[in-house]
Amino acid sequence: MTANRLRDGQVVWLAPEGRWAEDIAAAEVFDNGIIDEAISRARIFEEQRVVLDVYGVELDSAHPGPVPVTERERIRAAGPSVRPDLGQQAKGATVHAS
Amino acid sequence: MPLLECGRIVRDSWQKLADDAALPSAPCILSLSRLQQDEAVRTTPHLRLGVVLPVDQPAEVLAPYLDRLSLVAVNFPTFRDGRGFTQARSLRERLAFRHEIRATGNILPDQYAFLLRCGITTVEMQDDSDPAAWQKAADRFSFAYQPSELKEPVLSGLRRMIRLGVPRNA
Amino acid sequence: MQANATLPVGTYGYQPVDLAFLNDRVAQFRDQVARRLSGDLSEDEFKPLRLMNGLYLQLHAYMLRIAIPYGVLSAAQLRRLARIARIYDRGYGHFTTRQNIQFNWIKLEEAADILAELAEVGMHAIQTSGNCIRNITSDEFAGAAADELLDPRVHAEILRQWSTLHPEFSFLPRKFKFAISGSPHDRVAARFHDIGLVAKPGADGAVGFEVFAGGGLGRTPAIGIKLRDWLPEHELLAYMEAILRVYNAYGRRDNLYKARLKILVRAVGRDAFAEKVETEYAAIPKERYGLGPEIVDAIRARFGKPHLDAPEDAPAKLSDCRRRDPAFDLWVRTNSHPHRAAGYISIVISLKPNGGIPGDASAVQMDAIADLAEQFSSGEIRVTHLQNLVLGHVRQDELYMLWQALGSLGLATPNQGLITDIVCCPGLDYCALANARSIPISQRISERFADIELQEQIGRLRINISGCINACGHHHNADIGILGVDKKGEEFFQLTFGGCAEEDAAIGQIIGTALPEGAAVNAISRVIDTYLARRLPNERFRDTYRRLGATFFKEVAYAAA
Question: Which fold has domain B3-140?
Answer without folding.
Answer: TIM Barrel (3.20.20)
